[in-house]
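About this split. The held-out portion is used to measure sequence recovery: a designer receives only the structure tokens and must propose an amino acid at every position. Recovery is the fraction of positions where the proposal matches the reference. Here is one held-out target exactly as it appears in the evaluation file.
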């Protein structure tokens, strides 16, 4: 967005990596420590990010519901960043409603409204619909970046799987062929990104 401004539209979508009844991973298990040591920590260092292997592996559905609540109120980006930071920098349990309310308050959301929405599962269908669409598009892991024209269906978007450097995203065939093609008007390039905390 810094490079292309309003010519780029980014839309984050929910994707639960391990929804019920699938078991979550053991945060003290060999697998997570190996993956983080071999891949995550080097990638984070290369990109100047501070990430820590979270001591918990919570269910993320309620966190995605909070994000959808925030989206309707124009606070999605701030909420998404706060959730990411809470989990990947501070190891907070994103399945804990009290933690989510604390995050909501920190980004200026009405905590009574958030609590009511979470208690009533007001946004669960939206989260589940995003999950179904991701599966329909062949997405099975995160992160996944779909790049295509805003006027095209996601089924025609280019799928970049994994944590890709900006240069790879920028150099993708879809990005090269779309950015700026319609006088840099909003929506001339669309990017949908799926993200999840486990």
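Reference sequence for scoring:
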């Amino acid at each position: 967005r810094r490079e292309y401004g309003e010519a780029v539209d980014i839309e984050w979508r929910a994707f639960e990596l391990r929804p019920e009844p699938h078991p979550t991973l053991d945060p003290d298990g060999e697998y997570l420590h190996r993956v983080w040591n071999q891949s995550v920590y080097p990638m984070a260092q290369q990109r100047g990010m501070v990430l820590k292997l979270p001591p918990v592996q919570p269910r993320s559905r309620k966190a995605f519901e909070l994000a959808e609540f925030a989206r309707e109120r124009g606070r999605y980006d701030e909420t998404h960043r706060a959730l990411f930071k809470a989990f990947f920098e501070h190891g907070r349990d994103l399945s804990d409603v009290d933690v989510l309310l604390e995050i909501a308050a920190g980004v200026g959301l009405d905590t009574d409204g958030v609590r009511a929405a979470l208690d009533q599962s007001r946004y669960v269908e939206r989260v589940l619909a995003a999950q179904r669409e991701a599966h329909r598009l062949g997405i099975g892991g995160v992160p996944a970046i779909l790049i295509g024209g805003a006027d095209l269906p996601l089924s025609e978007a280019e799928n970049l799987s994994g944590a890709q450097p900006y240069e790879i995203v920028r150099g993708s065939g879809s990005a090269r062929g779309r950015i700026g093609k319609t006088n840099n008007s909003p929506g001339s390039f669309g990017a949908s990104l799926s993200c999840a905390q486990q």
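Annotator remark: Residues 179-198 have pLDDT under 50 and may be disordered.
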